Structure prediction request, 395 residues.
Amino acid sequence: MVQPAWQDPVLLAPEAAPAPEYGTGSLADLLPTLAAGQGVPGFEAMIPELTPADRNCVFLIDGLGWEQIKAHPDEAPFLHALLPTSRGGTGRPITSGFPSTTATSLASVGTGLAPGEHGLPGYTARNPDTGALMNQLRWKPWTELKAWQPYPTVFQLADAAGVRTAQVSAPGFEQTPLTKVALSGGSFLGRLTGEDRMDLAAERLAAGDRSLVYTYYSEVDGQGHRFGVDSDAWRGQLMYVDGLARRLAEQLPPRSALYITADHGMIDIPFDEESRIDFDEDWELSAGVALLGGEGRARHVYAVPGAQADVLTVWREVLGEQFWVASRDEAIAAGWFGPRIDERVYGRIGDVVAAAHDDVVITASANEPHESAMVGMHGSLTPVEQLVPLLEVRS
Prediction:
C-alpha cells in the first residue's frame, strides 16, 4: 500500500515476526520426542501431542510445505487425507526453524537442536575464523566438521542406546559433509529410486524391536526451484511422492509410527523489478556491506567494520515495509534462531538479518546467478515457507 506523502512508512517490527515454535513444535523437536518415547537416555518429549511407538520412521519430503499439501488435494490425495492426523491428530502443522532452508532444517532434524546451537544458520553464512562465506549445503569452502557442528546427532545417541537406526537416501548423500554433521549414526543405505527407498525403509523399520529410520526425497524441491510450485513439473513430482508415501505406509510393520514432514515450504516469485531486488545493482543496499549471505528471502548481511549501524538504518529504510529487518541482537532476541545462541555461532549470524514478508526476494545477479534465476524460493518466516506437515500413520 502506498503511504500518503505526509505519513511515515509503516516498518515491520522484528519482534512481531512469527518465530518458529522451538521447544514445543518445530522440526528440531521431532527426533528428541521420538527418541524419548523409545527410552533413549537424555531426551524428553518436546512435541506433547505425539504418542510413543517402538518403531519410528520419518519421511522428509524436501520442499513440501503445509500450505502446498492443503492446496493440492487432487495431486496428493493420500497426503491430503492425512492432514487431520498432523501433529498427533490435532490437524496442525509444526514449523521449520529459521531460515526455512534445507541445510538449516536438516541439521535441526538430525541434531534435535535449533540453529543457534547446531550452527548452520542459513544457506550461506560467514565463518568468523576466516571472514569468508561458507556454503553450508555444499560445504564450500571446506571446513572442519566438528568445529562447525560439534554436537552428536540423535541417530548416534539412539544407536548407542540399542535402537536400530538407519538412514535411507540417495547414494550420493552418504559421504557429504552435511550428512556427516547432521544425519549420521547407525547405517546409511543408499538407493537410487524412490520406490526402493520406501521398500528398504519399511524393511529396516521391521529389523529391530526398537527402530528409528529416516528417509528422504529431494525432487519436489528441485522442480519447485526450477519451474515453480505452480508448474506441471512440480505437480508431477507431488503426484509421484504422494504414491511413495502411500507405498511406505502400506508396508509398516507392527508397532510402528510413520511421520511425513518437510524441511520448508516454497513460494513462486515473479520476474519483475518490484519482486526481485538486485543487490549487485543497488548502490544503497550494497554500501558498507562486506559480504551478502543467506539467500533471497532470508539474508545475512555482514557489514564493513564500523558500518553496522548505517547498514541497518539503510536496509530498514529501503526494505522495512517488505522485510522484517533486524540487527543480529534483535533477531536473536525475537527468537528467530532459537532460545540459545552458542558463542561459536554468534558471529555467523549477519550484522543485519532480513526476512521477507511480501512476495519479494533480494537477488545477487552477478555473484549468485544460479540462485537468482530460480522461480520457487524459500527461507523466510511466512506461513507458506515456515509451516510444515507432521502427518502420521500408525500400525
User: Anything to note?
Assistant: The chain has a mean pLDDT of 97.
